[in-house]
Each structure stands twice: as C-alpha cells, then as structure tokens.
Amino acid sequence: MSKVQGPGFESKLILLIEDNIDDERLTLRALRRNNIMNEVVVACDGQEAIDYLFGTGSYRGRDTSMLPAVVILDLKLPRLSGLEVLERIRNNDATKRVPVVVLTASEDQGQVQESYRLGANSFIQKPSDPADFSEMILQVAMYWLLLNRTMPERMLA
C-alpha cells in the first residue's frame, strides 16, 4: 500500500486512546484500508496515554518533542478517564494545542459539554455499524492529517 500524500502527511503520528480492542482493531483496519499509513500509537488506558505524552512510566526517555498530529480519545477508560486525560493535555504547555477528537459511544450531553469545556476540538459519537465506523475514521483522519493546518512550531513557544 502507498501512503496518502500531502504536505508532511506521512510523518504525522496518531495517538489512539482506546480500551476496547474491537474498536481499536476497527480503527486501525479503517486507516490501513484507506492507505493511511501514518504511525499509530495505541494507549489502552488513560494513564498509559499520559505516560506516552509526557515521557513518564514505561515511556520514560521518549522524545516528547514528537507530539501527535491528532489524539483520538475515548472517554470511558480505565485508570484515568478520557475527561481527565483531556484536562491534563490542555493544562500542559507542551500539549495544550494538540488536536483532540473525543470519540465515544456515549450519548450523554453532559459529556459533550464537559469535553468542549475542557478543550476538545471535536466530539464524535461512535457509529455502531462497522461500515459507518470505518467511514467516520477515514473522515477524521483525512481532516486532521491532511486538511487541517497546524500552527507552525516556532509560534507554539
């Protein structure tokens, strides 16, 4: 398979924070089926995601200057909830501008409001149909990896 091309597209990392193995597999399959060959780091719980982002725990020593182009965040996670992860991302100068897409099965309007209050860039309800799920993942990836323009690094400091 060939990589989807675009300015810097192939070098953009995706951080998928998902504890449901079926949703993880569906997401990875949808990306590969659509020739999106970007590196995907999967964190299976909230604490693992924080450890990855901040170079702590089992990720101690990781080059934390290499930030994801987008974080796809489930809300219902073990150890730290998705909302706690989002809050920590937004409260850290190094990660506060990383795009975060909340992707959850929840229909709770309170979670929608709280996600946006904490700084989510997008809130998407997971489709139950696998074909719809695959299409949604493609749309999310294409937007955040190809269409969206990020702030130049020199302006982030």
What does this 3D model show about the protein?
The protein is of the alpha/beta class and 157 residues long. The chain has one domain (10-145): 3-Layer(aba) Sandwich (Rossmann fold). Helices cover 39% and strands 13% of the residues. The termini are far apart. It has helices at residues 21-33, 46-54, 82-90, 109-117, 130-147, 153-156; strands at 14-17, 40-43, 70-73, 100-104, 122-125. It has a 5-stranded parallel β-sheet, with helices on both faces. The radius of gyration is 15 Å and the shape is globular. Residues 1-10 have low confidence and may be disordered. The chain contains 6 helices and 5 strands, in the order βαβαβαβαβαα. The relative contact order is 0.17.
Features:
157 residues, alpha/beta, 6 helices, 5 strands
Task: Set down the secondary structure blueprint.
Elements: E1 14-17, H1 21-33, E2 40-43, H2 46-54, E3 70-73, H3 82-90, E4 100-104, H4 109-117, E5 122-125, H5 130-147, H6 153-156
Parallel strand pairs: 1-2, 1-3, 3-4, 4-5
Helix pairs in contact: 1-5, 2-3
Alpha-carbon Rg, integer: 15 Å
The CATH homologous superfamily name equals Response regulator
Taking the sheet with the most strands, its summary is: 5 strands, parallel
H/E series, N to C? EHEHEHEHEHH
As for the CATH topology, it is Rossmann fold
Structural class: alpha/beta
Terminal Cα span: 37 Å
Proportion of helical residues? 25-40%
Give a short synopsis of this structure.
With 157 residues, the chain is α/β, with parallel strands linked by helices. It has a single domain, classed as Response regulator (Rossmann fold), CATH 3.40.50. The chain has 6 helices and 5 strands, in the order βαβαβαβαβαα.
